[in-house]
Amino acid sequence: MMKMDSKEEIIRLLRKAVKEYDYEKCVELTKKAIEMGVNPIEIVEEGLTKELQAIGDAFGRGDLFITDLVGAASTVEGAMKVLQPVFEKNKEKIRSSGKVVIGTVEGDVHDIGKKIVASVLRANSFEVLDLGVDVPIPAFVEKVKEVKPEVVGASALLTTTLLKQRELIEALRKVGLRDKVKVIIGGAACSEEWAKKIGADAYGVDAMDAIVKVKSLVKELTEQSPMLNASSPRKI
């Protein structure tokens, strides 16, 4: 039986569970923290997110592997599933980093890389709407119209589907949405040169690179549109 006599101790143990990718322990500790009356926002910001950011920094330095990043992100997602009903019941709001629509383009059914990026984005307080794989361009456009994200991400691992990324950008331009949303592309078939050629705003080399660039794109869009405050509290 775990003994915890302070908020500081349970936050410390939560960070340790994330660091060790201990999904079950993280979920158990999250439930215990709620029972103890710890503010759910503190659980997220002081416990889960801080440790995930530390792991992301270590990955960026080359000290950890992608499996470490995925393990930590999945662990945090488990805790967030416990916290979500609490936020809804208490009408609590946590600070959202922004909203992202993501999917693998039509003709391509590769899912692993996209799922990793979506998972890490969620663990970094982004609202992520994952459209799945083999997503037609109109589906991307309709979702952008519906949810008004700051960023849309299109993945393509097959060279035969690369043109779909360009079609997406052209489709957004045709309906007058291109200047309202940033576009990041990724996938094994992509490159920095391809992103520039088709007019994408960024190219994500891997999950951690995508996080850094998505954060930068959200900041850039916010600065371009003073009425938009992507970092304000948002119910998630």
The total number of structural domains is 2
Number of helices: 9
The low-confidence runs, each spanning 5 or more residues with pLDDT under 50, are: 229-236
CATH topology of the largest domain: Rossmann fold
* Quaternary structure of the protein: single chain
Describe this structure in words.
This protein is 57% helix and 12% strand. The strands form two sheets. A five-stranded parallel beta sheet has the order 3-2-4-5-6, sandwiched between helices. Strands 1-7 form a two-stranded antiparallel ribbon. Helix 5 links the parallel strand 2 and strand 3 (126-130). The chain is of the alpha/beta class and 236 residues long. Residues 229-236 have low confidence and may be disordered. It has helices at residues 7-19, 23-35, 40-61, 66-90, 112-123, 137-147, 162-174, 192-198, 207-224; strands at residues 94-95, 98-104, 126-130, 151-155, 182-186, 202-204, 233-234. The protein folds into two domains: 7-94, Methionine synthase domain (Methyltransferase, Methionine Synthase (B12-binding Domains), Chain A, domain 1), CATH 1.10.1240; 96-230, Rossmann fold (3-Layer(aba) Sandwich).
